[in-house]
Specification:
This protein is mainly α and 158 residues long. It contains 7 helices and 2 strands, in the order H-H-E-H-H-H-H-E-H.
């Protein structure tokens, strides 16, 4: 099975690399990145102008709660989407990764466009979230694909 990370890197390399990062640095970063264990998402957001003024009063934990709920919702929906692909019967297709990353991006944009959202996500939030989700879900892809491969292996039919 194709390595999910390599597919992500080839599809989104230009989006997720900053000017100072190299492709190999990003691969290392993706292994270390676990957005699920972050205690504060302050490094991932850019506050709106009004909120910048209020920032002097302190970073709002309300933002962390909103972002944590968003991440949880996205992870649950991505998991449902992966299971709906029925990889064990139909096989793996790399377009699944494109569909899932498109879905994640759409959810982030939708969240930012809400009137109650007083911040926007920085560029690296998307990449860190995608890498964390696919690190978590990679075994699901592998198990499902292995089931497909075993059930469609011509050696079993001879």
């Amino acid at each position: 099975m194709l390595n999910i990370k390599n597919i992500l890197f080839s599809l989104y390399k230009s989006e997720v690399l900053s000017d100072s990062e190299h492709f190999s640095d990003l691969k290392t970063k993706s292994k270390k990145c676990n957005i699920f264990k972050v205690s504060s998402y302050s490094e991932y957001i850019q506050l709106n102008k009004v909120e910048k003024v209020l920032k002097f009063l302190g970073y709002s934990k309300e933002y962390d709660a909103q972002i944590n709920k968003l991440i949880t919702d996205i992870v649950e929906q991505v998991n449902k989407m992966i299971m709906s692909y029925n990889i064990a019967k139909m096989g793996y297709n790399k377009t699944y990764i494109q569909e899932l990353t498109g879905f994640i991006r759409a959810k982030l944009v939708e969240h930012e466009e809400k009137e109650t959202t007083k911040y926007t996500f920085k560029k690296h939030f998307f990449s860190d979230l995608v890498f964390a989700i696919f690190n978590k879900e990679q075994m699901t892809f592998v198990k499902q694909h292995n089931i497909f491969r075993e059930s469609n292996d011509p050696v079993h039919y001879f």
